[in-house]
Design brief:
This protein is of the alpha+beta class. The protein contains five helices and four strands. The chain has a four-stranded mixed β-sheet, with helices on both faces. Helix 3 links the parallel strand 2 and strand 3. Helix 1 crosses helix 4 and helix 1 runs antiparallel to helix 5. The longest helix is centred in the middle third of the chain and has 14 residues. The radius of gyration is 12 Å and the shape is globular. The two termini are about 20 Å apart. The relative contact order is 0.26.
Length: about 100
Amino acid sequence: MKNDKVLSMVGLAMRAGKVLSGEFSVEKGIRSHQAYLVIVSNQASENTKKNFSDMCSYYKVPIFYYGSKEELGMAIGKPFRASIALTDSGFANAVMKQINMSKL
């Protein structure tokens, strides 16, 4: 895995117990207002991207499309993941800041 600050922060959040992963867990976290940030893999299907985009828009949760399924999975110690949600506002803000900086 390349040296990536976004994925490193996601890994820290996972070790702190502040990450939901997998489609159903992430959807539940969004609906129950636990999610502060949703990250969907660039490799996710268009249907998955649209589903999360619509849901995040409705519940006013920031969403980013970032990394491959393997990279997201490795960051949280799983084989692969198409979607994850951060349930801590501090981690979410730090990750959003890094994602925005990486786009510059």
